[in-house]
Design brief:
The complex is a heterodimer of chains A (362) and B (297). In chain A, helix 4 crosses helix 5. Chain A is elongated and about 75 Å long. Chain A has 362 residues and is an alpha+beta fold. A six-stranded mixed sheet of chain A has the order 6-7-8-3-9-10, sandwiched between helices. Chain A is built from nine helices and 20 strands. Chain B has 13 helices and two strands, in the order H-E-E-H-H-H-H-H-H-H-H-H-H-H-H. Chain B is 76% helix and 1% strand. The two termini of chain B are 40 Å apart. In chain B, strands 1-2 form a two-stranded antiparallel ribbon. The chains are: A alpha+beta (362), B mainly alpha (297).
Chain lengths: 362, 297
């Protein structure tokens, strides 16, 4: 099922009683979520991504705008009439109920003709538990399980009533690093197996990039960019998106276009930019540096960190906005790097140029 | 090692001395008094040991009346006050405007002196040569005939007593329950809402189990407190509780020690031990029931 979000806007009354100004959490959220895909809603804390999710879920009403599930306008419907399943960051498993009782809880709410018999509920709960592979833990209480297992129970509880949409709010942030990797694969698998349109919210770009079909990058209440993870990474629309995606983060320099060439400080690093003379901001991905004695970017080497397959070079450059820049190079090009001056050749496709408004122009 | 434990005992000494003199010794003494037959407090002599004190107390019509009064009071006020406190707390936690104001109002009886509250109840219920009391005035208004709540029929006196007790214990229970309700993580309610859970089911399946430890605490302390009722009775019916037929077990114990017909520490001790056994039994039953219904997180 596809979800169409039409100019969704959410405003809250200001907390400060004196000022009448409203706080806009989400503004003009316009997006059609394709059927059966996994969407990562990505942005820093406070960017409005959770509010957007809550509006899709029905826990919050949009101030203006409409929400469509296929051809149904669900804007004014309560959550249970929309057919959504939600997984909360803290899982929200009822601690006094067993896993089975937790998973069956949504089913027991059915009334009238939808009412299920005890056997049907048991069967559905078992099915959901098998899907997330916790069917042997059905009689435990949540307190007796690990974080990862609790997470699975929460997903099973969200899936048991066969929702049209599955919503996950920061589903991995309460898990430790190893479990996080495992669980995100798991979420991917479950989404593929069920084919449910899934939206998940995260502030972790790596998480979003690794499992999403599409990512939606948000900042201060607005959508900045929507696209396949690699596309967004390769061609960010603005400096914010470029900085937000990628670990280690993109290196940002003050630069200038002069006579069709790109200068970073005094170093002429690119030719034929096709841009007019102007001050610009330059972003270079860490993998865009190639150590080369003939290279045009001259840096001061601070340290070299060897991380197995790759090597991370920490250096400094007078035009770099941060105190140091970080380049990732293959281990074979590590030879010959010593402290002192180091020169890099720059891969043109890893360079992004932003104008004074921080919008990418090349 | 030896020296170390000596030091430990030394540190404990003040507390042990204090507790020994004011707690352990009286406890042991009560047990001894209760089996000393024919104890005379003036000459401090007794005939011998036996269970006569217990059989005397258990056959004393005043004691039986006190037991009846106390049990009635417990059975009526403990469940009723807990349920009322729960309803009021639920209402309080669901309103936003004037929440603090109402919380303060509901908490006022807690900081008010028992005897002052007794005075208010006198104005409400007592018949004097000048007025029949406010409640009677209300009854008149609806065409009823006046009732003497303080010196009249037993049920009327019991009614006043129960209203009074509930009114006095309510604020503390409301305080505990509102904070218990506030401590339930709102994400559970959100999750329940996504699944379309009715508010009654949310209350029964989520709220109630989550605050059950606090309810259990209130029931246990409520039972113990109600079994120890005494000063509230004095505040309404005066010191001669036997005459008004509204004595309680603790009142009976006090009368046996210091009342006009007092001077019988042996009977008082026997009565005190009987009260102890009753409270112990009820608490054990409570614990047994709670094992199934109280959920600690």
């Amino acid at each position: 099922m596809k979800i169409r979000l039409e100019k969704l806007t959410k405003k809250y009354p200001s907390r400060d009683r004196k000022s009448r100004e409203e706080v806009t959490a989400v503004s003009n959220f316009d997006y059609e979520v394709p059927d059966g895909k996994l969407i990562g809603l990505l942005g820093p804390s406070g960017c409005g991504k959770s509010t957007a999710l809550n509006m899709i879920c029905g826990l919050e009403k949009p101030t203006t705008g409409r929400i469509w599930f296929d051809d149904d306008d669900v804007t004014d419907l309560p959550p249970e009439k929309r057919g959504v399943g939600m997984v909360f960051q803290s899982y929200a498993l009822y601690p006094h109920l067993t896993v089975r009782q937790n998973i069956m809880f949504p089913l027991e709410n059915f009334k009238g003709k939808d009412k299920l018999s005890k056997e049907e509920m048991m069967a559905k709960a078992d099915e959901a538990a098998r899907l997330v592979q916790i069917d042997q833990l059905m009689d435990r209480k949540p307190g007796e399980m690990s974080g990862g297992q609790q997470q699975r129970v929460a997903i099973a509880r969200a899936l048991v009533k066969r929702p049209r949409v599955l919503l996950l709010d920061e589903p991995l942030s309460n898990l430790d690093a190893r479990l996080r990797l495992q669980t995100r694969e798991e979420i991917r698998r479950i989404q593929r197996e069920t084919g449910i349109t899934t939206i998940f919210v995260t502030h972790d770009q790596e998480e979003a990039m690794s499992i999403s079909d599409y990512i939606v990058v948000m900042n201060v209440g607005e959508i900045n960019q929507i696209g396949k993870p690699q596309e967004v990474y390769d061609s960010p629309v603005n400096l914010f998106v470029a900085k937000f995606l990628g670990t280690p983060p993109i290196n940002v320099f003050d630069g200038e276009i002069k006579n069709n060439a790109l200068f970073v400080g005094n170093d002429r690093i690119l030719e034929n930019t096709g841009l007019g003379d102007q001050k610009v901001t330059v972003g270079i991905r860490p993998e865009g540096f190639l150590p080369d004695p003939e290279g045009s970017l001259v840096c001061e080497l601070s340290s070299i960190e060897v991380m197995g397959r790759d090597t991370s070079v920490v250096a400094s450059h007078p035009a770099c906005q941060a105190s140091s820049l970080r380049a990732i190079i293959g281990s074979d090009s590590r030879e010959g790097l010593k402290t002192g001056e180091v020169r890099f050749k720059i891969k043109p496709d890893k360079v992004h140029i932003f104008d004074s408004e921080q919008v990418r122009i090349s | 090692m030896e020296k170390k434990s000596m030091k430990g005992w030394l540190y404990l000494l003040p507390a042990i001395l204090f507790l020994g003199v004011f707690m352990v010794y009286p406890l042991v003494d009560v047990c001894i008094y209760s089996i000393e037959e024919g104890y005379n407090s003036a000459s401090q002599t007794f005939y011998g040991y036996g269970k006569y004190n217990f059989s005397y107390v258990l056959r004393d019509p005043y004691f039986l009346q006190a037991i009846k009064n106390t049990f009635l009071l417990v059975i009526i006020t403990v469940p009723l006050s807990t349920i009322m406190a729960l309803l009021i707390s639920l209402a309080l936690s669901s309103i936003k405007k004037f929440k603090e104001l109402f919380q303060t109002i509901y908490f006022l009886p807690y900081v008010t002196n028992t005897l002052a509250v007794g005075l208010v109840f006198m104005i409400l219920f007592k018949k004097t040569p000048y007025s029949d009391g406010m409640i009677n005035a209300l009854i008149h208004l609806f065409g009823g005939s006046s009732i003497d709540f303080i010196e009249g029929p037993y049920w009327a006196k019991m009614l006043v007593m129960c209203i009074y007790t509930i009114w006095v214990v309510l604020p503390f229970k409301i305080l505990i329950l509102t904070s218990a309700l506030a401590s339930v993580n709102p994400v559970y309610y959100k999750a329940a809402k996504v699944d379309g859970t009715s508010s009654f089911r949310i209350f029964r399946k989520i709220t109630l189990p989550m605050i059950s430890p606090m309810i259990f605490y209130l029931v246990i302390t409520g039972f113990i407190g109600a079994f120890k009722a005494y000063s509230d009775e004095v505040a309404i019916f005066g010191t001669d509780l036997n005459a008004s037929g509204m004595n309680t077990i603790v009142g009976y114990i006090y009368d046996m020690l210091y009342g006009d017909s007092g001077g019988y520490p042996s009977y008082a001790s026997a009565a005190a031990l009987i009260l102890f056994v009753i409270v112990l039994t009820i608490t054990c039953i409570n614990l047994l029931i709670s094992n199934r219904n109280v959920h600690y997180s």
